[in-house]
Amino acid sequence: MTTQYSRGRRRAVGPASAPRVAEDFSAERPRDPQREARRRRGPFRQMTDFAAASGLGQKAGIALAATGLALTVTVPVTGPVMATPAPGQAASAVSAAPQPEVTAEAAAQIDFSRSSVVTQGDPDGKLKQLLSAQSAGSITRAASAGSLGSPLAQLATASPFGFRVSPITGGSGDFHRGQDFVAQCGTSVLAAASGTVTFVGWHQYGGGNRVVVDHGNGLETTYNHLSSASVRVGQTVSRGDVVALSGTTGASTGCHLHFEVQVNGEVVDPTGWL
Questions:
Q1: pLDDT digit string (tens) for 137-178?
Q2: 106, 229, 249, 271: which has the fewest C-beta neighbours closer than 10 Å?
Q3: What is the distance between the alpha carbons of residues 182 and 264, in angstroms, rounded to a whole number?
Q4: Torsion of CA 140, 145, 161, 251, to 10 degrees
């Protein structure tokens, strides 16, 4: 049914339509829990989480503008390799450097040899390095000091190297060819360094029972006035091995060890090597 108005317009007349029911928009949407969690974490936590997840948070500086304070936070590295950006390069453009591929034929021989490493705890290595580089005669006292080990467990000098009053004749001007150390008869005598035994026997010039060890490149050590020897000619010994027992044989006035260091056949002061 319609109604005609004076100006010619028509208006529909009929029963009133049912009121429109308002829709409820308060129902939870799927992403709301995540949004609420992000809101509770706050901006600072969200930034650090993003930095850690993206792999670009290594030592990132984060400014807290809300408080007006600048705080630097170190975020753990999230990848195995983190490259440092070049000047003017954005951090987002930096990626992990690719690792080179190493390939070899099936029959290839790989050599892992390297030059020896010598430390203060390896005196034999130091001596070997000194002697392999040059003749013993050209080694300076500063370089040789400490390269030989002690021929006795405990060293106490009885008579030094050089000129002295002879204990046998009492005359002055006697040249002492080695260093005498206090030792009771039967004390273990030790090899001063590794080497090869070249002489074991009686020394006709007053040394009594004598052992000589050749250390190579012109360096030898001798052990004199021994009561007995523990090695034989041609035997290889290591530093600290027992080569003999001390005594008082030969031109000796009592139990002791006469120790000599020879360079190219000439005796030198043992204290320059001990």
A1: 888 888 889 899 999 999 999 999 999 988 888 888 889 999
A2: 106
A3: 27
A4: -120
pLDDT at 24 over 80: no
Q: Report the alpha-carbon distance of residue 223 to residue 212 in Å, rounded.
A: 7
DSSP SS3 for 11: strand
Residues recorded for the chain: 274
Q: What pLDDT score was predicted for residue 30?
A: 58
Residue whose token pair is 């006795």: 152
CA distance 189 to 161: 19
Q: How much is the pLDDT for 149?
A: 94
Question: Which residue reads 């010598």 in tokens?
Answer: 118
Residue 61: name the closest of 53, 49, 70, 52 by CA: 70
14 burial type by CB count under 10 A (0-12 exposed, 13-18 middle, 19+ buried): exposed
Close Cβ partners of 232 (under 8 Å, ≥ 6 residues apart):
197, 200
**DSSP type of residue 167:** T
Q: How far is CA 104 from the centre of its chain?
A: 30
Please give the Cα distance from 62 to 72 (Å, whole number).
6
Spatial contact of 158 and 246, defined as CB atoms under 8 Å apart: no
Give 224's strand partners: 258
The region that residue 173 occupies, defined by phi over 0 for left and psi between -120 and 50 for alpha, beta otherwise, is left
pLDDT of res. 229: 97
Cβ neighbors of 81 (< 8 A, separation 6 or more) are: 96, 97
